[in-house]
Amino acid sequence: MRKAMYAVLALLAHLCVGEYVRLTWNITYVQVNRDGHVDRLAIGVNNKLPIAPVYITQGDTLFLTVHNMLDVPTAIHAHGLVQTNMPYMDGSSMITQCGIPPNSSFTYEIRSNSQSGTFFLHSHHMGQLADGLRTPFIIREKYPLGYDEDVLVALEDWYATDSRDKLVELLAPDTNTPLSPTFPFGLINGFNGNDTKAVKFERGKKYRFRVLSMSTTEYWKFTIPGHKLEVVEADGVMCEPQLVDGLDLAPAQRYSVVVTARDSDEFNFVYNCTLYADFVPRIKGLNPRVYTGLIEYKQGAPIKHVEVEDQIEWADDVSMRALDNEAVFGVDRQIELAMRGFLTTDKRRLRRLGTLPYAEPHVPSIFTAMSMGALAMDSRVYGPQTQAYVIGFNQSVELVIKNTQGQTHSQHQHGGTFQIIERGPVDHSELEPPPDPRFSLDDVPKIPVRTFTGVPMRRDTIDVPPFSYVKVRLRMESGIWLHHCHLSPAHDVAGLSVTFVVAPDVMQKTLNIPRVFYEQCEMQGIKTEGNAAGNWGFDMTGLPPVPVEMPAPKAQGAQGAAQGAPAKALPKVPK
Known about the structure:
mainly beta; seven-stranded mixed beta sheet; 34% strand
């Protein structure tokens, strides 16, 4: 019955015509102490942090006016929203715009169209996401889904270090001294995770928990012991209900779960939010950090602590089914991407998904696509380090995303959602040599191959655990769309990004980029025509030299391990 109701509501969503919602953000620096321990400079809105969540209704258009009062550019990305016919509104700095210059303003037009669910707004300029410029963006369904109340659980990690200082540390030439591990604090709904308010339950009512990770680096687990979670949405895509015990969220992933209150108010319960990482040492009280909140049936009632079973059933995207029954795409083209370390000859520790670490072009890629005529169909004009793949109009692409390393990665796709086809192990011959001789690939857990059945689930952010691959398919609108690791700034800025240039010939015929985007570039002395270097043809004079990789060390014997794997630590088996 419930499945049928969701299907009808999903169909009605395509008929949505909405309102105009207007919002103004003055983006400023703020001095804050969000974790109760460290005062630091951060980035907020209207001199405040946290930033208030943004709510609109399916079919509405959000006009977000940004006044940039920082001393550097900024750009705002609506994470998970497909900017149909307006790729220039995607908010990716040096991809779809030059960024909003300091002391200037710009209005984003963000159309929800038929999309609904749980998203977030965040900066897409350097590491500003990690400095606080992020907030939930909730698009309510035009037609309610049959629950009684909405509960927001916005999860963040919070570091003591400014992102600019952290980038200097991460990208500096290696001195053979390993970086000291850092342990962030957890924030829930913008504040210290220990200071959460009680969630009030009434017997028999249904509550939709929107659980979203706005974390930059670490992962979150969410459970309500004594209650089942019925997953109904992942990353803005409605799914057939899946009953689970908990959620394991990679950075930038989101879920909606419906929780049915118990029939008795004799006891109160707790919910658990656990912040953790598999790439830093496990130290009690630091990694993981466990935060709890109260599920209050009756004020003053005793708390019933439910023993957690050894085998928890976690939400599993490869076994989910999208509610709209979108058929699996055929394959017009297959692209293989592999996360690998890239140690340069000057000893900078970069990362790559393609053949080279990603680096920003001197001309935003959207302007190269619009100005290079027939050459826009040639990936070379976008520069060697944008790692551009030119894709034809309406082509279906199968991505095989391989994690050859001992650290998990969270891959986000702009401009569309992935159909999740398959998960499985990366062949041992493709894994990176071990940085620590005490770690052996013989100890890597055996990972089964798991394939979707019936209808594939879709989402825009997918977790790729250590030593595993995920096979996905997607069909994107014409435009310039970034694909990148959402561990920021440690991975995306260090090079784990590629660019999908979709139908630039169609863009040239159909797009009319507003004049203000050109003016933003002019104010910063950035060219708006030519190839990645601002020249014509394939002349890349003016771009930084392409980094040269040091020869890979030879693995001892038949053993190897992934770069970044902690000594004597084994990766978790993918769910």
